[in-house]
Amino acid sequence: MHGAVSDKSDTKTESSAVPGDSSDTTRYDFMVVSNRLPVDRCAPGEPGDDGSGWRRSPGGLVTALAPMMTRTDGAWVGWHGAADETVEPFSHGGMDLVPVQLSSDDVELYYEGFSNATLWPLYHDVIAPPEFHRTWWDAYRTVNRRFADAVVRTADEGATVWVQDYQLQLVPRMLRQARPDLKIGFFNHIPFPPPEIFAQLPWRQAIIDGLLGADLVGFQRSSDAGNFMRSARRFLGASVKQQQVHVKDTEGDLTHIARAQAFPISIDVQHITELARKPEIIERARQIRQDLGNPKTILLGVDRLDYTKGIGHRLKAYEELLNEGHLKVGDATLIQVASPSRERVEQYRLLREEVEGTVGHINGTYDTIENTAVRYLHHSYPVEEMVALYLAADVMLVTALRDGMNLVAKEYVTARTNNDGALVLSEFAGAADQLKQALLMNPHDIDGLKDAVMRAVKMSPKESARRMRAMRKQILDHDVDHWSADFLNALNEKVIRDDS
Ligand code: G6P
Question: Subunit info (predicted)?
Answer without folding.
Answer: Homotetramer.
